[in-house]
Request: fold
Amino acid sequence: MKTAFAVLLFGAIFGCAAALECYSCSSTLTAKSDCRDWVANLTTISCTTAGSSCYSSMVKATTWGVKVDRGCVDQCVPDDSCMNAFGSGTCRTCCKKDRCNIDTPGGADMAGVSAALLLVSSFLTVLGAL
Reply:
């Protein structure tokens, strides 16, 4: 009994932390795919470095479409450069909970942002011509 209590106490003090689990995929998209839309179907990976983060990344380019990556990285830097008037660039989100990299950054919401920026710039151009 004392041995079991000692093992339990040791684990509580020094932490028996499990590795962070992240969804993992990489694909260039021309249509819907599991990597972009249905993360529940994806495999998971265990991060090997303490302090790692899960990430979701989307690279948009008007000429070749969209590339989505999900996985684990030692140092994650969030980025929202795909949220520009041209609808191209990189968006990346970072998180530190198991399987937290569910959302696709700059996804469907990005279309609304681009459309709104285009509408506002068109309105200002027409207004300036008057």
